[in-house]
Amino acid sequence: MAQKYSRRKFIGTSTKGILGLAAASSFLTLQSSCKEKRNKNFSKAIIIGTGFGGAVAALRLGQAGIDTIVLEKGLSWESSNGEKPFTKQFPPDKRSTWLRDETVLPLPPHSAISQYTGVLEMTEFGNMNVYTGAGVGGGSLVYGGMTVKPTQNHFEQVFPSEIDFTQMDAMYYPRVKAMLDAQTIPLDLEETEYFEYSRVFKELADAVNLNTRKIDIAYNWDIIRQERDGIIEKSALAGDLIYGNNSGAKNSLDKNYLREAQNTGFIEIRTLHKVVSIIRNEQNKQYEVDIDIIDTKGATVEKKKLYCEYLFMGAGSLGTTHLLSKAKAEGTLSQLNSFLGKNWGTNGNTMFMRENLGLFNNTGTIQANPPIRALEHFDNPITPILIENAPYPIGAVVPIDCFCHLHLALGLEDTRGEFTYNNETGQLQLDWPNSGNDLIIQAAQHTVSILDQADPIQETLSTVLSPTGFTKNFTYHPLGGACINQVTDQYGRVENYDNLYVIDSALMPGSSAVANPSWTIAALAERCMEHILLNDFR
Questions:
Q1: What is the pLDDT of residue 399?
Q2: Residue-range domain boundaries for the chain
């Protein structure tokens, strides 16, 4: 039997840094072999989802010795025996996309595929398409690894005053960065032909006195060196990104947080487990989680009920908001408050492509992943904006230089949408204004007008994404729906329900403060979990 101990005493070690947690984890892992066999239908805690919030919760619960089941509707994509689990970016196969018969990227070309539980999911809401990751690791499977921290000024404009940036900056952001091993690209790789497009981006910005910087990337640069040197097959350097990386270079959550969580011996991850409803039993104060176990074509092969004392919502902005909204509508969590579904935002996403950069601005036949540089135009007179230079790896299909730059811009956009639950369809509906993201588009247009001064004749906007060149109907960064200090307290505790927590991007107030959200989601989860384990587990 595992030794009993005070969780208050245990979690206190985390305030002294990650070394204390690691030491405690090593001790508990040794003890785990003595545990009683886990009840297959009951666990002290259940986590729904394996993205940046769920993964943090899994590790910290595991290190605290708490038996926990983690539910993931997608597959595990970890490679073994040298296999290549992911599809290539071009041409993609069924592994690319969640239960569709055609790929769904904002950019053409689109490919016909057979339905499969692939890694990229798109949810359509009329005038807004939302992209999310599916599988063990959630969004980390499909993101670019860009690990960006907001400035204190921007952070304090977005987040409640109770969330102290100084504390986040001193404790929780560094903790996440260390786990993800996020670093800027080394010079020897930056200077290769694969990142020529990024060097041109910097040169054009420098010419008009706009500031760019290399950003921290959650990638293993030694593995990318092996790709460069021909030791292993190219994946990142061949442009693979959004459908996963076959060389293992991307430090997705299955390689760090979730792996270490499982190594504690207290965490069990169950894949192809799609949660369909949540019920609170007021007699025994437990939560019932109803599940459809699905096959790789999405068909339900078994229905199951699991029970727990502590329930952590980590299914992402859409998943968490959907499950809680359904529970409120059906009366199984009828006391959820009126803020549920509100304050949802896109993180101010817009995508655009600049082309015809000129014969002397070759952007490279192969534009490699990951993205490594961003332009900070924080004094943009319309709204502060970050413009990231994403690769456009068309050279992997046709070996030509596109003389183009693909950009994702994000900024302080105050448009917010609201979700409601449709009882007839069993789905969320999103009230999102047609004018949504207009502010960020105007800001991006202003920055582009400055960039054009570096080459006013050659540079133009491509209309491959939209007639205007700028997208406004999609986001890679869905945020909010069960926001901190509204649906929950400042530590993710859901109002009116003991031992029910939101721990993921649904907490975020529609924006990540002019930054990619993954680092802040995980840092907030670290902050919440430290407080929860110290105060809610006895």
A1: 87
A2: 7-77+253-344+479-535, 182-250+349-411+438-471
